[in-house]
Amino acid sequence: MSVQMHIPGVSDLTDETKSPFPLNQWYVAALSKELTDQPVGRTLLSQAVVLFRDGDGRVHALEDRCCHRALPLSSGTLEDAGIRCGYHGMLYNGGGQCIDIPGQDIIPPRAKVKSYQVKEVDGFIWMWFGLDQDAEPLFEPPNYAVHSSGKYLYDGDVYHYEAPYQLIHDNLLDLSHLGYVHLRTIGGDAKTHMNADMRVTGEGECVRVVRHMRDSLPPPTYTAAYPFKDRIDRWQEIEFLPTHLKIWTGAVDANSEDLNDPERGGFHMRGFHGVTPETETTSHYFWTIATNPQSDPEATLQKVVEQTALTFEEDKVVIEDQYQNMLKFGHAPMISIHVDAGANRARRIIEKLRSTAG
Amino acid sequence: MSVQMHIPGVSDLTDETKSPFPLNQWYVAALSKELTDQPVGRTLLSQAVVLFRDGDGRVHALEDRCCHRALPLSSGTLEDAGIRCGYHGMLYNGGGQCIDIPGQDIIPPRAKVKSYQVKEVDGFIWMWFGLDQDAEPLFEPPNYAVHSSGKYLYDGDVYHYEAPYQLIHDNLLDLSHLGYVHLRTIGGDAKTHMNADMRVTGEGECVRVVRHMRDSLPPPTYTAAYPFKDRIDRWQEIEFLPTHLKIWTGAVDANSEDLNDPERGGFHMRGFHGVTPETETTSHYFWTIATNPQSDPEATLQKVVEQTALTFEEDKVVIEDQYQNMLKFGHAPMISIHVDAGANRARRIIEKLRSTAG
Amino acid sequence: MSVQMHIPGVSDLTDETKSPFPLNQWYVAALSKELTDQPVGRTLLSQAVVLFRDGDGRVHALEDRCCHRALPLSSGTLEDAGIRCGYHGMLYNGGGQCIDIPGQDIIPPRAKVKSYQVKEVDGFIWMWFGLDQDAEPLFEPPNYAVHSSGKYLYDGDVYHYEAPYQLIHDNLLDLSHLGYVHLRTIGGDAKTHMNADMRVTGEGECVRVVRHMRDSLPPPTYTAAYPFKDRIDRWQEIEFLPTHLKIWTGAVDANSEDLNDPERGGFHMRGFHGVTPETETTSHYFWTIATNPQSDPEATLQKVVEQTALTFEEDKVVIEDQYQNMLKFGHAPMISIHVDAGANRARRIIEKLRSTAG
Questions:
Q1: Are residues B121 and B151 in the same domain?
Q2: Backbone angles phi, psi at B264, to 5 degrees
Q3: What does the pLDDT read at residue B190?
């Protein structure tokens, strides 16, 4: 089976006429909670951007470069009307137009910087990257009811990866690695994970992987968060879309409920994973974890968040080591095994989106 | 207005047939106080040089490379007669000739390294960089009476910048940035700086910018150093020459004296700024600050030096950020505003000197 | 005299049709003591390798890359049967064949990684690098009786150098640098070293340098380790082979014994120096030092090892500075002096071995 993957410096299969990233997509640019009274400078899909809120709380994204002497606007300061450069004080509004040049009456019309389409939905700042950069977005950014429904407590963070985005997709679509990489938190017995019942489905740009591990021992994070009686029936439901993944995992007491029923009880962890390329070789990883604590909600949430952070730090080490080693070995072929079905399907989707964008 | 600037990796306008730096010039290579009983290794205009004093206190500059096995001579040791390599002990005199090979009687004539023209004047070590490297200097290095007159106390330091030299010229020639970058020290009200009376003149390779800010509030460094009654009349006189700048700033009580009179009283700060390219993308910044303390001279000098160092560290952050951002954005054009008149004039002088050098 | 040397980025003489390293050679890959219950990942001659012991204590070397998703096997775990990848648990035996894919019954035959020829002899792990990588080694790796004879106590370590391997050869073949670089330990009076009686001989791929320093003052390491009466007669016997050097140094009381007699008494230090290229520009340096303590053997050994480590750290600084300076100055020629005879002979041997390998 031939599976293409865009790994700069590595893949034979890279077609330079294609975009390195799927375009005509909304990508996560920030978590809502990151944008307070300071601007945030961040490179997204190889473009240096400053993100900030104006006096009304509206979020804007501009090219991160003053048009006068090229200072990053992200080292400037926020005002109600926009963002002021920290070198000679030029002020820009949310549309990128300069609206004040201190000591000078006339503002030349070309005193402006590029602005980007951003929308804030359910705790995320989404940013549109179009094939045609001047065109309007073709559709709306996604809602995320897990954050807005009130049924869950959640928190999250942003991690930076020295690795291309598709290696993070691979990692999230194949949870069989939990038994080897995440023994301390959500892992548990390795064979249980490798031998899970797995079903891979999907349509369009979506891939779904469902894995059931029945009658297994609860891992450390689970026992710490929920009063299981003994062995558990555990599920992992992964939904991949080109710019983000949602992973709904959890467990009930063994043989107590139907694992396929979305209304099942027990312990739930609902993860959101925004995977946004920083450059072709580095990535931003925006994650939140939501859970349904039975008692002492804040303490339980905090514990779940801590363990999730620990888990993702373990993944980060593995993925960055993997990329360094891929660079070292260049074009050496990879063989696929049974657990790769979902990841390989996602790679084909990304490959197709890169072509249509080219 | 088209203004050329040699920014490696950035400018469209770079003509590779030109020298990256003005030649036939004296550049500051070191402060006198740096050369004690240890040699100093330093790259100047892309040439690795060792600077040292011999037993008579005379300063010499040699190629920083033993002709035997290429060790930097700057990791060797000083003797009365010259500098001895730290690997196998070859001794070189100030002219670069090897005068001792331990254990070997005959010294081959080709056992020598290149030497440079250096002169020590008023606390600076100047080094000649000629278009023809073997020719004698065409003129003498400049005096600096501020150091030798006995009217001022002074001290200084050397900073290293990860940015090309012309960005430091820009910064020093346009002091309107004080209100945004240096609030904590010599800044003060931003609008005062942006609205200063400014006059730009010059002849030959010299640019002069004079700025007056009348009836303004004294900034923190000024009030700490001098007993102003209330508001002040403040001057800034900048003199640019291709390898260094002199900046005479100060203030008198508002409406008490003629700001154009060089004999004016009040509080004075006289800065010397030697901007010497290390490479095309990095720079040495040699500075001294002289002042005329009214009381407790040593303590006042120390305070002024500390605040000046703090100010230059703020500039360093801005200039290095600027250069990184210029590299990120490549050939994006810059627009000029009213405060850039002096800096733009200096750029044209440097551009012309690079051509005649080619 | 023209002496060739393969210094990447420096030498005019580099012939790219040659191998950068002598091939058909055994190189030291590790000290025996390094391989315990953890695998060791190491790049040797530009190849990333994992070294480990199986349950029987036998040493194996494999390509450091899981054939599934390219993780370094060296971040995996050891089992009796081999090494298990830390991502999805694939297990490899010492021959590089995958023998377990968790959760999958069939193991495809192409699920394997490259294996290397390794042999453990007298405390070293030797690895064969052939001109034809699939051919058997042409000869056996060397014994090292100094470790196995029981006459000496020894210990050692591995250092990493940011410099090409031939600069380490140079350093070890020319001990005249002791008086300038190693004053604190094995140096002593510089002139004594530079004026030593020196004889350079050799045959085939071997160079021998013998140096005698009669009636000299003992250096710090010697007086600390042995009860010399006063002045000493000191010898240094260096034997160079393409992948390693042996250096037998020591001293007897002045005029008490024949320095050319291998059965001479006094204080002995016998050094082994495995110089294995990591890449063309970086090196591994495996060293052991053996000595013959007169009293309190463990404490004396410890002192000798500490001083040797200190000495090699001094060499590391010099050699890395030298390489950086060679890169800075590019093709500038080097002149040779009397002490270079042995090093120049070794360079010609390496040059010849690189050609026959091409």
A1: no
A2: -55, 150
A3: 75
Summarised one tens digit per residue, pLDDT across range C109-163 is: 999 999 999 999 999 999 999 998 789 999 999 999 999 999 999 999 999 999 9
Is the pLDDT reported for residue A47 higher than 50? yes
Residues C233 and C336 in one domain: yes
C5 pLDDT above the threshold of 90: no
Whether A59 and A105 share a structural domain: yes
Q: Are residue A187 and residue A336 in the same domain, yes or no?
A: yes
Q: Mean pLDDT score of chain A, rounded to an integer?
A: 92
Asked if residue C154 and residue C123 are part of one domain, the reply reads no
What is the residue range of A125's domain?
Answer: 25-129
Is residue A51 located within the same domain as residue A83? yes
Is position A138 within any domain? no
Buried b (16+ CB within 10 A) or exposed e, B108-144: eeebbbbbbbbebbbbbbbbbbbeeeeeebeeebeeb
pLDDT computed for residue A1 by the predictor: 47
Range from A128-132, A133-137, B33-37, C70-74 carrying the lowest mean pLDDT: A133-137
A210-222 mean pLDDT: 90
Terminal alpha carbon distance of chain C: 24
Q: Kindly state whether residue C18 falls inside one of the protein's structural domains.
A: no
Q: In this complex, do C338 and B103 lie within 8 Å of one another by their Cβ atoms? A: yes
Same domain, C55 and C186: no
What are the φ/ψ torsions at residue A57 (nearest 5 degrees)?
Answer: 85, 0
Q: What chains are in contact with B, requiring at least 3 Cβ pairs below 8 Å?
A: A, C
Tell me the β-bridge partners of A27.
A127
How many structural domains is chain C composed of? 2
What pLDDT score does B1 carry?
A: 47
Let me know: does C212 contact C235? Beta carbons within 8 Å.
Answer: yes
Residue of C nearest to A176 (CA): C88
Among chain C, residues having any CB pair with chain A shorter than 8 Å are 43, 48, 63-65, 67-72, 75, 85-90, 101-104, 108, 110-111
A87 falls within a domain: yes
Put simply, the answer to whether A103 touches B326 (Cβ < 8 Å) is no
Quote the radius of gyration of chain B (alpha carbons, Å): 22
Strand partners, C77: C84
Where helices occur in chain A by DSSP H, the ranges are 145-148, 165-173, 178-181, 190-194, 220-225, 297-329, 341-356
CB C188 within 8 A of CB C218: yes
Interface contact flag, C194 B89, Cβ < 8 Å: yes
pLDDT digits (tens, 9 = 90+) for C258-267: 999 999 999 9
Q: Residue B358's pLDDT is what?
A: 43
Q: What integer pLDDT is reported at residue B319 of this predicted model?
A: 97
CATH number at residue A294: 3.90.380.10
CB contact under 8 A, B334 and A70: yes
- Residue pair A93/A82 in contact (Cβ under 8 Å)? The answer is yes
Segment B165-191, tens digit of pLDDT: 999 999 999 888 887 888 777 777 777
- How many CB pairs below 8 Å do chains A and C form together? 75
Out of A96, A129, A162, a domain closes at A129
Whole-angstrom distance, CA of residue B197 vs CA of residue B202: 17
Which of residues C239 and A225 earns the better pLDDT score? C239
Domain boundary among B79, B97, B129: B129
ipTM reported for the complex, 2 dp: 0.90
Does the residue A3 lie in any domain? no
Identify which of A225, A272, A273 has the alpha carbon closest to the alpha carbon of residue A251.
Answer: A225
pLDDT of residue B15: 65
| B216: β partners | B232
Residue-by-residue DSSP string for A121-167:
ETTEEEEEE-SSTTSPPSSPPPP-HHHHSSS-EEEEEEEEESS-HHH
- Do C195 and C251 belong together in one domain? yes
Query: Looking at chain A, which residue has its C-alpha nearest residue C84?
Result: A180
CATH of the domain at A74: 2.102.10.10
CA distance A216 to B248: 79
